[in-house]
């Protein structure tokens, strides 16, 4: 018996001057589709050459102010059984290719809805659109914001397309929206009763943050479009106008428009409720401070979402908020927190973070509620997770600095305050805080620089120092000033700045050609994260269970990173029994105050060193952090005691202290 024919896929796209993003797009589909059809509408850059370099068949078509016409033109060149419609500013998730192949083998469906992940204002949003369909079973309509109309049923999937077109620079976005506005106005000049064009014009104003223009357009549209001539377009216009009112801080008007839309649909027997309108209604109640009503609407939204996901094939048009469950969880958390139900609020904020790890408001709200119950340690963990997710918000850096100060962890506060001050160098409070941190750590020159920058003391008091403070302050070179003061401050020094630690570890890895890092004292994995691309294998040992679990979740997708729970003094012997290569050891497992773990001893350093020296590999490189703690107090050996201990096992080895880090290695 012959195997059934494997369905073929044609990728169809229209382009114009897309040289910046096109290579990544084509690279993401080149091994998935059977042919690539590119219709160019007038490029003057290298777009056509790039497309041809990927084996695409390129055709030229004059731009006639109609996306539907251009897309339909591209379909005419396709020969595949299925069409994948993709834009130059999108990329297909490689892990979802098997799911795509499985979807097009299902004979029941003529269309496949995929998840479009768009970065908008540095937040990740998810929308669902039909982007895969059988050739000959679908067509486009409308000249702008064109809709794909599919004959028969559509299969809902989580196949991911990453869309970069809403995260361009301001000038590119301005030109993009201006073009869209012109096309929509042209469409309405030809047919003023086109409800879908009115809906998109209002939306276009909202995306440009021209909310009052959107409201005005909505009011004009509602004079022309009524429930009697097109109830679907009428309610869509109400919904988008309500969105503009919401963003214009007019919750009462938002509620009025949303309730009118829901009432109209209910009277005409439309079920279930419109999910987009219910979500907007929830947001308006939240803005108004009606938290119980907002909770009811967010719950209704989440129930509707379950229905919509199961019945997506019956929904004729795109749904905006289907991927907004994380925002609903965040809204529920905010409302419950304001009603005093803090643990429920925490649970919902954590749900929001898990549903969308790039959603900044959820981290901020979760940290805020932890701070409100005086659990600053959990607040810090929450914000550090955001940083490790790549969310580099000035507000997060500032909050981390403030929280570490509350814990009197001044050395940990400094790097985050510095990151904040790079963007906000004139924030007097932040300058005073960083100066205070250095003063508490005994680094008086750096403290005076901070106080001087904040205008808190007279500059004439700083003349005894040999630095040109005026030049430093005018250039805002805070990092240089801090490192300079740190190097000159003698024995009373703060921990070296994180970047200096990272540089030291990388320098020694390169110098001794080492590709395995063993770290003791993971904390929340900041060193591990900084080193993840430097070493082929990283083993990090953390005593605290909660810290360990948090860090494991952060590095869950990094196969070469191993987070191990336990006391490093006990774990190292077992770990080294599995390693037969030279390692770089970063020993940082000593107790560092509230928020870090403490074993039977303040520091297991002697036990760690003894284990390393007993290993069959004789040329490991060892770096020890926090030199300032090795004073002979609280169970710590002195530096001289450590030196004698090391040289007893490794006579003739280098043992030096430089920039707050002990360095031990073969001469």
Explain this structure to me?
The protein has 667 residues and is α/β, with parallel strands linked by helices. The strands form three sheets. Strands 3-2-1-4-7-6-10-5 form an eight-stranded mixed sheet, sandwiched between helices. A seven-stranded mixed sheet has the order 13-12-11-14-15-17-16, sandwiched between helices. α2 links the parallel β2 and β3 (57-60).
Poorly predicted parts: 456-497, 591-599
Biggest sheet strand order reads: 3-2-1-4-7-6-10-5
Total helices: the number is 27
Sheet bearing the most strands, described? 8 strands, mixed
Instruction: Report the portion of residues in β strands.
Output: 5-15%
The whole-number mean of residue pLDDT values reads 86
Counted beta strands: 17
Please state the structural category: alpha/beta
Helical content (DSSP H or I, runs of 4+): 40-55%
Global Rg: 30 Å
The outline comes out as globular
The rounded distance between the terminal residues' Cα atoms is: 72 Å
Question: Which short descriptors sum up this protein?
Answer:
667 residues, single chain, 50% helix, alpha/beta
Summarize the structure.
By secondary structure, the protein is of the alpha/beta class. Helices cover 50% and strands 15% of the residues. The strands form three sheets. The chain has an eight-stranded mixed beta sheet with strand order 3-2-1-4-7-6-10-5, with helices on both faces. A seven-stranded mixed beta sheet has the order 13-12-11-14-15-17-16, sandwiched between helices.
């Amino acid at each position: 018996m012959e195997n059934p024919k494997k369905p073929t896929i044609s990728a169809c796209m229209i382009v114009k001057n897309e040289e910046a993003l096109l290579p990544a797009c084509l690279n993401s589909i080149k091994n998935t589709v059977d042919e690539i059809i590119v219709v160019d509408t007038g490029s003057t850059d290298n777009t056509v050459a790039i497309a041809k370099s990927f084996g695409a068949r390129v055709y030229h078509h004059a731009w006639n102010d109609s996306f539907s016409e251009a897309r339909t033109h591209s379909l005419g060149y396709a020969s595949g059984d299925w069409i994948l419609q993709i834009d130059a500013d999108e990329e297909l998730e490689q892990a979802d290719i098997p799911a795509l192949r499985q979807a097009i083998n299902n004979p029941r469906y003529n269309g496949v809805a995929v998840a479009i992940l768009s970065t908008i204002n540095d937040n990740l949003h998810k929308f669902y659109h039909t982007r895969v369909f059988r050739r000959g079973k679908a067509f486009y309509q409308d000249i702008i914001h064109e809709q794909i109309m599919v004959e028969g049923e559509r299969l809902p999937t989580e196949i991911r397309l990453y869309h970069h077109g809403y995260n361009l620079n301001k000038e590119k976005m301005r030109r993009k929206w201006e073009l869209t506005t012109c096309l929509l106005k042209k469409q309405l000049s030809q047919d003023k009763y086109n409800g879908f064009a009115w809906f998109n014009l209002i939306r276009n104003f909202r995306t440009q943050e021209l909310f009052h223009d959107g409201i005005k357009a909505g009011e004009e549209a509602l004079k022309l479009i009524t429930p009697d001539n097109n109830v679907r377009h009428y309610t869509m216009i109400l919904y988008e106008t309500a969105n503009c009112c919401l963003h214009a801080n007019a919750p009462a008007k938002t509620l009025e428009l949303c309730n009118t839309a829901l009432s109209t649909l209910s009277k005409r027997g439309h079920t279930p409720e419109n999910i987009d309108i219910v979500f907007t209604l929830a947001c308006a109640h939240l803005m108004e401070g009606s938290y119980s009503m907002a909770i009811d609407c967010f719950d209704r939204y989440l129930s509707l979402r379950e229905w919509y996901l199961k019945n997506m094939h019956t929904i004729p048009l795109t749904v905006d908020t289907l991927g907004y469950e994380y925002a609903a969880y965040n809204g529920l958390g905010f409302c419950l927190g304001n009603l005093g139900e803090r643990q429920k609020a925490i649970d919902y904020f954590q749900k929001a973070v898990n549903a969308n790890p790039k959603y900044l408001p959820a981290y901020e709200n979760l940290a805020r509620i932890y701070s409100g119950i005086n659990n600053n340690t959990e607040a810090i963990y929450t914000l550090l997770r955001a940083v490790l997710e790549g969310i580099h918000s000035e507000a997060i850096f500032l909050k981390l600095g403030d929280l570490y100060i509350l814990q009197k962890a001044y050395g940990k506060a400094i790097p985050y305050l510095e990151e904040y001050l790079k963007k906000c160098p004139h924030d007097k409070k932040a300058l005073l805080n960083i100066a205070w941190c250095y003063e508490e750590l005994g680094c008086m020159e750096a403290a005076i620089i901070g106080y001087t920058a904040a205008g808190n003391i007279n500059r004439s008091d700083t003349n005894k120092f040999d630095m040109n403070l005026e030049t430093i302050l005018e250039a805002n070179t805070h990092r240089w000033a801090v490192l300079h003061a740190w190097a000159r401050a003698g024995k009373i020094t703060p921990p070296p700045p994180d970047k200096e630690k990272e540089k030291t570890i990388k320098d020694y890895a390169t110098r001794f050609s080492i590709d395995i890092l063993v770290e003791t004292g993971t904390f929340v994995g900041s060193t591990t994260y900084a080193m993840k691309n430097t070493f082929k294998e990283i083993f990090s040992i953390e005593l605290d269970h909660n810290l360990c679990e948090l860090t494991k979740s952060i590095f869950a997708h990094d196969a070469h990173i191993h987070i191990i729970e336990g006391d490093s003094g006990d774990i190292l012997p077992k770990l080294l029994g599995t390693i037969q290569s030279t390692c770089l050891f970063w020993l940082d497992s000593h107790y560092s105050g509230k928020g870090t773990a403490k074993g039977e001893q303040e520091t297991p350093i002697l036990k760690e060193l003894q284990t390393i020296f007993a290993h069959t590999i004789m040329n490991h490189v060892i770096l020890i952090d926090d030199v300032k703690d090795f004073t002979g107090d609280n169970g710590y050996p002195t530096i001289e005691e450590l030196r004698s201990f090391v040289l007893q096992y490794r006579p003739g080895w280098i043992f030096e202290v430089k920039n707050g880090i002990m360095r031990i290695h073969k001469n």
